Amino acid sequence: MGFISPNLPDLDREEWARGSRMERMRPMVQDWAQSGFSAPDAVLVLYVVKIGLYCFGAAALTALTPGIGDLGDIADWWTEPIFFQKVVVFTLLFEVLGFGCGFGPLTLRFLPPIGAFLHWLRPGTVRLPPWPSVVPLTRGTHRSLLDVVLYLALLLAAVQLLLADGQGGRPGSVGVIDPLLFLPLFGLLVLVGLRDKTIFLAARSEVYATLAVFFLFTAGTGGDTTDMIVGLKLMMVLIWWGAATSKLNQHFPHVVSVMMSNSPVLRSKTLKRRFHRDFPDDIRPSRLSANLAHGGTVVEYVVPLVLLLSDGGPVTAVAAIVMVCFHLQILTSLPMGVPLEWNVFMIFGIGFLFVENASVGVGELGNPLVLLVIASAAAVVVLGNLFPHQFSFLPAMRYYAGNWATSMWCFTPSAIAKLDASVPKVARLPAAQLETLYGAETAALLVHKGYAFRAMHTHGRALFGLIPRACGPDHETDYAPHDGEFVAGITLGWNFGDGHLHHEQLLEALQERCAWEPGEVRLIAVESQRFWDPRQEYRLVDAATGELERGFVHVSDMLERQAWAGEIPVHDVVTAPVPAPAPRTLTPEV
Fold first, then answer.
1. Around Cβ 325, how many Cβ atoms within 10 Å?
2. What are the contacts of 573-577 at 24+ separation with CB within 8 A?
3. Which of 185, 346, 527, 537 has its CA 20 to 30 A from that of 459?
4. CA proximity to 36, closest of 286, 318, 269
5. For 199-234, b where at least 16 C-beta lie within 10 A, e where not — what string?
């Protein structure tokens, strides 16, 4: 593997290019199964450096706190409650600037490797309000100067907290941040989120803003942080349990097999092949992948409970080591979407909350409002699993469990030209970025490597299997499929797997700007699987004329198929008249 060049499978490229889309995908799926994405070494170095800068930034800014000590003395003050507070705020700022989840080449962001603040500081870009017909003053999808000002104010509110002094500390401690200083951050997150849900989600508000709510429970306690610590512990357990609950499905073994095959730590191709049933012909997850998936789910339920109920000593130490290894395993597997800093933060939280403050037990809770906050967050998790079409997978804490809303956007060449000409953005679609970096031939191979990643998940079988229904018999020559995450990434500035950001609302916003003709853009939207429902809903939508068809695919059909299988059975189909496609110049897909 080259330092800056991708490692691609050895195949006859001319013969490969003559195959159908699914025929071209097959060798890419097989290569992923033993080599992963095969990112250049420079990409791995980039992410290691970014994690280092994240850790250094949080510590260096905290070291500016009067009385806490120099950066070189961090071993003496890392247990200060104000350090945990500032790590939470710094991580929220790091994420909402776009340096965390969804950053860089592993999310097919190259030129530039970031959107976020480059997008959200630019008036005229696309924004998506969550409830425009309900909340006054939020209608429209064009970013205004007001939106830019609100976003800037949010950043400044976070910076203010990072530079804040401590107060009310016990003897020998610098104390905690004045709880009132958090109110501007919360207020601005709400205001920004009501105008643009993308920014609210990008801040990872369900984790860091909710954790920050417990910082309010230090007011009037004379420096006592007991209620804050208990609330933080309960919230951390809820995060683990929410993620574990989302993995009670048949999709998660596919996630494990894809993630482990992508691990740069596991160098053996022979070992990586064992995560699949019968390489190279059956790339479904093996029993090893299933055992790792279900075993990890058990760990995520049981060990956090041990941490919560233990009060120090060997039991706490063993449980902490297990959870640190759990997050290190995720971290070193480089999951696509790269929630790397989140795993680093969770490891730090284990040390601060459950090891250093092991003696602070749930029974010492004094303020019942802490339980109300936990119950509210838990209610969102429950409702998000029962009614996934109504909730983002982030506040529902359905993290990387293989069961989230997805989409595939099928563009004609003329549609892509209109997208590039009519929508303000900081980057073009990944296929165009790759062509600039590596040339058309290599770009085509890398695009299909991206296809392979999606198709190896269960919902990918549905997305690719529905393309012929959405685009007709000429789908191979007329349309270029693009993952909805990448469409949202360039037009909204950010995406981290939330399919609701690239379903009909985004399609309508882009149609306002691009005025696509009937047949130029076809959207395939697949919803998450509802808890214990054996089906997943799909919708086929034309940008110009609206919904064409809706129905269900059965999870069992997706589990039985190979990633390159092609069309998939559909059920309970409701169709609308399909308009004739507009005349256009046809070119092969990239």
1. 12
2. 573/549, 574/549, 574/550, 575/548, 575/549, 576/546, 576/547, 576/548, 576/549
3. 346
4. 269
5. bbbbbbbbbbbbbbbbbbbbeebeebbbbbbbbbbb
Band (pLDDT 50/70/90 cuts) for residue 440 is very high
Task: List helix spans (H) across 129-225.
Answer: 145-162, 183-195, 197-202, 208-213
Question: Does position 471 have pLDDT exceeding 50, yes or no?
Answer: yes
The two structure tokens encoding residue 589: 């897909």
Of 482, 368, 372, which is closest to residue 433 (Cα–Cα)?
482
Q: What whole-number distance in Å separates Cα of residue 289 and Cα of residue 348?
A: 28
- From residue 435, alpha-carbon distances to 104, 111, 444, 461 in Å are 17, 11, 8, 26
**For strand 535-542 and strand 521-526, is the pairing parallel, antiparallel, or unpaired?**
antiparallel
Contact 555, 538 (CB under 8 A): no
**Which one is predicted more confidently, 588 or 381?**
381
Distance, in Å, from the CA atom of 175 to the CA atom of 173, rounded to the nearest integer, reads: 5
- CA–chain centroid gap for 393, Å, is 9
**In this structure, what is the dihedral angle of CA atoms 497, 147, 523, 568, given to the nearest 10 degrees?**
20
Beta bridge partners of residue 407, listed in sequence order: 525
The span from the first CA to the last CA of the chain, in angstroms, equals 24
The predicted-structure confidence for 258-296, as pLDDT tens digits, reads as follows 999 999 888 899 999 999 999 999 999 999 999 999 999
Q: What burial letters (b/e) apply to 374-400, b meaning 16+ CB within 10 Å?
A: beebbebbeebbeebeebbbbbbbbbb
Half-sphere exposure of 260 (CA within 13 A, CB side): 23
What is the spatial distance between Cα 437 and Cα 431, in angstroms, rounded to a whole number? 10
Q: What does the block give as tokens for 193?
A: 């989120």
* DSSP-derived pairing of the beta strands 406-411 and 535-542: unpaired
Q: Give the strands of the sheet with 571-575, arranged side by side.
A: 480-483, 406-411, 521-526, 535-542, 546-554, 571-575
Among the listed residues 309, 274, 313, the one whose alpha carbon sits nearest the alpha carbon of residue 291: 274
488: alpha, beta or left, given left = phi > 0 and alpha = psi -120 to 50? alpha
| DSSP helix, strand, coil percent of the chain (3-state; round to 5) | 55, 10, 35
Using CA of residue 33, residue 34, residue 36, residue 39, what is the dihedral sign? negative
Q: Which helix (H) or strand (E) holds 573?
A: strand 571-575
Residue 242 main-chain phi, psi, to 5 deg: -60, -45
**Residue 551: which H helix or E strand, with range?**
strand 546-554
Q: What mean pLDDT, rounded, does the chain reach? A: 93
The Cα–Cα gap between 401 and 292 comes to 13
Would you give the distance in Å from CA 495 to the centre of its chain? 7
Gap between the Cα atoms of 259 and 335, Å rounded: 6
- Any residues with CB less than 8 A from the CB of 533 and at least 6 apart, and which? none
d(CA 257, CA 571): 28
pLDDT over threshold 80, residue 117 = yes
User: In 3D, which of 524, 300, 275 has the Cα closest to residue 401?
Assistant: 300
DSSP bridge partners of 282: 278
Question: 307 in helix, strand or coil?
Answer: helix
Choice among 173-177, 516-520, 523-527, 567-571 with the minimum mean pLDDT: 173-177
- Helix locations, 18-40, DSSP H: 21-35
∠ CA 82-88-89, nearest 5°, is 90
Place of tokens 């009310």: 168
